Structures are given as structure tokens and as C-alpha cells.
Amino acid sequence: MRSSGNTPSPRRETAPRLWIVLAGEDHPKACTGRRLLRWGRAVRVPRESGRSPPPVVLDPYAPTPLSAADRRTAARGGLLAVDCSWNRLSVRGAFPGSGRAHRTGLRYRRLPLLVATNPQHYGRVAQLNTVEALCAALYVLGEIEAAADLISGFAGAGEFLEVNRERLERYRLALRPAEVVSAERLLFGST
């Protein structure tokens, strides 16, 4: 039987929208954020743009890890990654926008501990490139297919998901940030 048009159709769940702020610190050819933008998999936003509804901002220095508790906010506002150099990030507080969470109302979240498989930081804990970070965030939020699709075509793509599979699954199943921290301790020892 056909719908009369008054019956709402079931809402199709989609992965959170991906936003990128380019800091312009990386070599353009090695920049995974620029490739995501060029391929239409993410949207570029100005550095000081205020998104409405606000996204979850991936910040390596945020005290709270990303968890299932952030799914609703990410579904509404998306995920925002700042594509910048790890050399600049090594100075705590150099992350563009860090420390402004209370003023702006944004949710700053760090990714749970994972191992990078990109050519620049292979084997290093918590030094993911932009595409690895967004892939991990999607996975943690339960968007497994979207995560795999996003990272396909990048160096180390399949390896990233394989090397981190157990970690990503534990983090995905953690409902609250405290459970993510417990999983990190179990997987990596004392953090």
C-alpha cells in the first residue's frame, strides 16, 4: 500500500558530517585533510567559524575522551578536526581553539589511545593524521562502515583498522568517558 504522504517515513541514520579547519602547516601533498576536502568527504570551515549546532571538536589535549555519550551531539553538529602539524602540537596548548570550550559551548574531545599507521607516524601512540582521527572518531561513535569508507584510498588505511580493531571495538562499546579511560588502562597499561 502506498503512503498518503502524511505518514512520516523512517528516518535514515547517516554518519555525522565531517568538518575540517586547515591550519596550513603541513606539506600540501602529504595533507590528508586537504585530500578529504578535495574528494568531497569533508567540508572546510574558517578557523573561527561558529557552527550551529556545534560539532564535537577533536582536540588531542582535551581531558575527556570521545565516547558513545557524544553520539547525539556528533549526529546533530558533526565532527570537527583541525588539520595541523604534530610538530606544532607538541607544545601543549598550541592546538587552535583549545581552552575555549567553556566560552564557546563546544564539546572538545580527545580520541582514545590508538596506534598510527600512516607513513609519517607509523607505530606511534596517539599521533594520528587527520583521516585516521576522523576514521577513529566515526568508529567510536558506532559508524563502522562510514569509518572504513572514509579511510579507504589512504596509505596504511586497511592496516589502521586492523592494528586498532580490538581497541576500537572496546572504545565503541564504552558508553561513558570513564569506561573509555578504563579500556585505555587495560589496553595500554597505566595512562
Describe the structure.
Helices cover about 35% and strands about 10% of the residues. It is an alpha/beta fold and about 190 residues long. The protein has one domain (about 20-190). The chain has a five-stranded parallel sheet with strand order 2-1-4-3-5. Helix 5 (about 130-140) packs antiparallel against helix 6 (about 145-150). The longest helix is centred in the last third of the chain and has 12 residues, at about 175-190. Residues about 1-10, about 90-95 and about 100-105 have low confidence and may be disordered.
Low-confidence stretches: 1-12, 90-94, 98-103
Total domain units: 1
Please tell me the overall pLDDT: 82
- Please state the structural category: alpha/beta
The best one-word shape is globular
How is the main sheet built? 5 strands, parallel
Strand content: 5-15%
The percent range for helix content is: 25-40%
Notable features of this structure?
36% helix; alpha/beta; disordered N terminus; 191 residues; globular
Summarize it:
The protein has helices at about 30-40, 70-75, 85-90, 100-105, 130-140, 145-150, 155-165, 165-175, 175-190; strands at about 20, 45, 55-60, 80-85, 105-110.
Topology:
Blueprint: E1 18-22, H1 32-38, E2 43-44, E3 56-58, H2 71-77, E4 79-83, H3 86-89, H4 101-104, E5 107-109, H5 130-140, H6 144-151, H7 157-163, H8 165-173, H9 177-188
Parallel strand pairs: 1-2, 1-4, 3-4, 3-5
Helix pairs in contact: 5-6
